[in-house]
Design a protein that fits this description.
By secondary structure, this protein is α+β, with helices and mostly antiparallel strands. About 30% of the residues lie in helices and about 20% in strands. A five-stranded antiparallel β-sheet has the order 1-2-3-4-5. The termini are far apart.
Amino acid sequence: MTETLTPPTTAGADSPLALLFDIAREIGTVGEDEQRDDAKTAALDHTWSRYPDTLGKVLSDDDWSGRPALAGAGLEQSAVAYLDGGLWLHHSSDGDQERDVLTLIAPCTCGNGYVDTVLDGEWDLLEVLTELRATSGRFPHNSDRPDCDSQRRLRAWGDTRS
């Protein structure tokens, strides 16, 4: 004979099942403050390990500002660091937290927007910085693309969404 399992009736507020449900909800939910801290920690770890002779020497915990995920927009938690002269770094991880993405965001020479480039290690950063030094920290405007103003516009905290 086969017995069927009947679902539990509503648990009382102090029952072990109700307490377990509350614990599962709390553990499964990461608050915005924790996301900000995690984003800063991930950015610091990435810059210290992949950019030890450059960014690892000039950026500290205080330079990074963590941002929580924006689930409705499909954006993971991230961190930004202002470098000066209108240049920013944006750090994020892919959805599985397996690949770090570090992006340098700099003004365009046209003066209407920003251009970003994903960095692939310290030598790549050094190459980009050498190019930017010749243009006073601005990416050369690419006339083949639409005006930078319509491409990327920075919001107050470094989000490059249009």
